[in-house]
């Protein structure tokens, strides 16, 4: 097959250097804003930061979305305005549902800072269906051991969300969602089924191809609907599969997502006015709202 036969579009990353590590962002893009419910896709690192340093994402707000954090290396401490404190490590999932409004921070744990912390992983945002956009905020931590793993010789896939290869993840979903971490050993392969409305593949590291078409690292390949394919590698690769139910486009401004532009304007006003709840134990600083309009910010 050719590139055009397999893929609707290929999204090139916009890369940012955030002081010691890079973030590669493929969603949203001008040519494509969503894949299923996914409307934000960032690869963080991989990087080893200097000893004594770390990531310090100050408290900031979200509405009408869910964030999904999944690490390959390192650790992060999550705190939010619900009072949650949760440490995430590789292979586990943090699902934070903003609903009508939540504030959170993400920081490198102190024990990781001592040795020079590793940072490597994926953070995504998922749009909530319109009828639950204003639900109560929630937080869910799913451990590495709770996520189903499919192993077949030289292929291993961890199902982060939804149902894939006959196994279902316990992670909460609000719409049809598929999300998986695929690790292929040398000579490995795995089928990519055509069940979901929209699907995309992202090569994190190594080399891989889909039905003979080579993938470029840090690019998001949106598969054509109804096209089944096989993901293969010669030397080894790590690939993320994401997608699910097609959804109507969302408005995105800074950290706010909604089906309503007016709702985003209200969230802007409320954050400026200090009306969002605070993060207990991490309320001495916060990220101010941008004075120059932005579509999104990290994370």
From TrEMBL:
Statement: the UniProt record of this protein carries the keyword Oxidoreductase: no
SUPFAM superfamilies reported in the protein's UniProt record: RmlC-like cupins (SSF51182)
Segments forming domain Pirin C-terminal: 179-276
Reported cofactor(s): Fe cation
UniProt keyword RNA-binding present: no
Residues annotated to bind Fe cation: 60, 62, 104, 106
Name this polypeptide is given: Pirin
Organism: Sphingomonas guangdongensis
Gene3D superfamilies in alphabetical order: Jelly Rolls
Domain Pirin N-terminal: 21-126
Family: Belongs to the pirin family.
Cofactor: how bound: Binds 1 Fe cation per subunit.
GO molecular function annotation: metal ion binding
Segments crossing the lipid bilayer: none
CDD domains: cupin_pirin_N
Keywords for this protein: Iron, Metal-binding
């Amino acid at each position: 097959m050719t590139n055009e036969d397999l893929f609707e579009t290929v999204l090139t990353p916009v890369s940012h250097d955030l002081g010691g590590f890079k973030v590669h962002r493929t969603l949203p893009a001008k040519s494509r804003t969503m894949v299923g419910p996914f409307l934000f896709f960032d690869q963080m690192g991989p990087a080893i930061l200097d000893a004594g340093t770390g990531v310090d994402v100050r408290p900031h707000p979200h509405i009408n979305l869910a964030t999904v954090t999944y690490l390959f290396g390192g650790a992060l401490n999550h705190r939010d305005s619900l009072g949650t404190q949760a440490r995430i490590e590789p292979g586990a999932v943090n699902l934070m549902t903003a609903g009508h409004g939540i504030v959170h921070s993400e920081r490198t744990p102190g024990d990781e800072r001592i040795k020079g912390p590793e940072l490597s992983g994926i953070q995504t945002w998922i749009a909530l269906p319109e009828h639950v956009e204003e639900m109560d905020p929630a937080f869910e931590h799913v451990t590495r051991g709770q996520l189903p793993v499919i192993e077949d010789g030289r292929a291993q896939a961890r199902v982060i969300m939804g149902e894939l290869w006959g196994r279902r993840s316990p992670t909460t979903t609000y719409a049809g969602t598929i999300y998986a971490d695929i690790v292929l050993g040398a000579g490995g392969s795995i089928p990519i089924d055509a069940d979901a409305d929209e699907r995309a593949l992202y090569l994190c590291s190594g080399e891989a191809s889909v039905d003979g078409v080579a993938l470029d690292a840090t690019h998001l390949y949106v598969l054509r609907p109804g096209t089944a394919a096989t993901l293969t590698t010669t030397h080894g690769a790590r690939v993320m599969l994401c997608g699910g139910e097609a959804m109507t486009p969302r408005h995105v401004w800074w950290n706010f997502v909604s089906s309503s532009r007016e709702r985003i304007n209200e969230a802007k006003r409320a954050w400026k006015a200090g009306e969002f709840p605070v993060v207990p134990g991490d309320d001495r600083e916060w990220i101010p709202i941008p004075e120059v309009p932005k579509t999104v910010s990290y994370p």
